[in-house]
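Recall that a protein's primary structure is simply its ordered list of amino acids. Everything else, from secondary elements to tertiary packing, is in principle encoded there. The following example makes that idea concrete.
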Amino acid sequence: MARALAGLRAYQAAPREERPVPQPAIHRAGRVALRDYGGEGRPVVFVPSLINPPDILDHSPESSLVQWIAAQGFHAWLVDWGSPDSEDRDLDLAAHVERLLVPLLQALPEPPVLVGYCLGGTLALGAAAITPTAGVATIAAPWHFAGYGEGRPTLAATWAAVQPAAAMPGVLPMEVLQAGFWQLDPARTIAKYEK
């Protein structure tokens, strides 16, 4: 455990690159923006998770999947989910797809290829089921939601403890989700920081 905590401290103290300046938002649906990364050819829309900031797919010019796709002969776009507030408290995953993602996709001149990362992959699959697309690729998208059965009691207890506090602002803080992810496989979380 001491090695894991030392690794966590090193991670927290590590220098961070400045976040890239967001590209222009050409289309909007509520708080969500579709950012234009340029390029020519068929549109490719990257759909990040609701949990991660959009720059998870655009860290820097040297490590940007979105910019790389634009340089390969495609017109690259990135969904920026924005910051939810109490007005979004009743938006479930279906509403994120139907009310926020699909209108952005339909604003493009032709059906795009969707590339979804993490939960964004699951949302991209939902969008592809209800609006024309040229294809879907998913990266680390959850698909087996019945997994981690042995972790459900711990997650349920955590949720019971934090739900009253999460209800006050009307949104679920990312830190609560992260704690839930860590509880699914505590040994993996510890091993991650021990390295």
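The chain is about 40% helix and 15% strand. The two ends are 12 Å apart (CA to CA).
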